[in-house]
Write a structure and sequence with these properties.
Layout lengths: L6 H8 L5 H12 L1 H6 L2 H8 L3 H10 L5 H12 L14 H16 L4 H12 L3 E5 L4 H13 L6 E4 L2 H8 L6 E7 L5 H12 L3 E7 L3 H5 L2 E5 L13 H20 L1 H18 L10
Parallel strand pairs: 1-2, 1-3, 3-4, 4-5
């Protein structure tokens, strides 16, 4: 299935080759896409100061059948959210720190102790745990979960390729666990792979968005609430909420495993000290 280039991208590509009158219309659409998606052809022409024929010629130059189709495509482009087409809101460095603090404070109050206890019980008793996340932040979270859990004596492996995860999920059985990360809870691959794991009797533990489809599919897990601001340039703080949930889960798993965990950590520390030298308080890793 082919996807058409969105209309705003088409305008940017075609702009250098347009006639002057058409360029004026194109620039007006870029500057005020909401108005142009709602106004009729006469109002657009009047706003720009050109003839209605110029508006029609632009629509044709963009590959549209007529102005009506151009407006429909423009409305579809705006559906992603006004913040992605309007003049960006600029956040200073302090705003990044504040956004992270606000998100962590909000999610600290949402920790469900019963859900946490059940997630720890399921993972600690699992014969095999596959960890899956895809699409940026969740990919990193899956890899970090493996980094946290192997040192606790938990047999686990992280996979971030959708097809490989699909195959691995098909080998799971009762007594196994699929631990999934999704910052949104809507990614089709995550939902499909979770259903495959459940089909073969594995338990699905998720760290994901509250109220999402994945939150319904999972057997147990930790739910977070995230919120994106209007500054599209500011890195998403959602991954910090997921990392918070992973930290909490890893801490409780370590406490449950007790002496075995302590011995594993001691052996890792000895191995690292022999290798890199350094002081006593370096992290167990790098």
């Amino acid at each position: 299935m082919t996807q058409q280039t969105d209309i705003l991208t088409r305008i940017a590509i075609c702009l250098p080759n347009l006639r002057e009158a058409e360029k004026k219309v194109a620039n007006t659409i870029k500057d005020d896409p909401v108005f142009c998606s709602q106004a009729n052809i006469s109002d657009i022409a009047k706003r720009v100061g050109v003839s209605e024929a110029s508006v029609t010629r632009l629509a044709k130059a963009l590959g549209c059948k007529d102005v009506r189709e151009m407006k429909v495509l423009l409305a579809q482009s705006l559906a992603v959210g006004q913040r992605f087409v309007a003049t960006p809101v600029n956040t200073d460095i302090g705003g990044i720190f504040q956004g992270i603090r606000d998100l962590l404070d909000h999610n600290e109050k949402r920790i469900d102790e019963m859900a946490l206890k059940e997630s720890v019980r399921v993972i600690s008793k699992a014969e095999n745990t596959i960890i899956f996340g895809c699409g940026g932040g969740s990919t990193i979270m899956a890899q970090e979960a493996q980094n946290r859990m192997f040192r606790l004596g938990i047999r686990c492996s992280a996979v971030t390729d959708g097809l490989m995860a699909r195959m691995m999920a098909s080998t799971l059985r009762a007594g196994d666990v699929l631990l999934v990360f999704s910052l949104t809870g809507y990614t089709p691959e995550v939902l499909e792979i979770s259903m495959i794991a459940k089909r073969y009797g594995a338990r699905v533990v998720a760290i994901t968005q509250a109220g999402s489809p994945l939150a319904t599919v999972m057997d147990c897990g930790l739910l977070m609430e995230t919120f994106e601001g209007d500054d599209i340039y500011r890195p998403t703080s959602s991954r910090y909420a997921a990392l918070l949930m992973l930290d909490i889960l890893a801490l409780r798993l370590a406490q449950v495993n007790g002496e075995d965990t302590q011995d594993n950590l001691r052996r890792i520390k000895v191995s690292l000290d022999e290798h890199r030298k350094g002081h006593d308080r370096l992290p167990l890793g790098d």
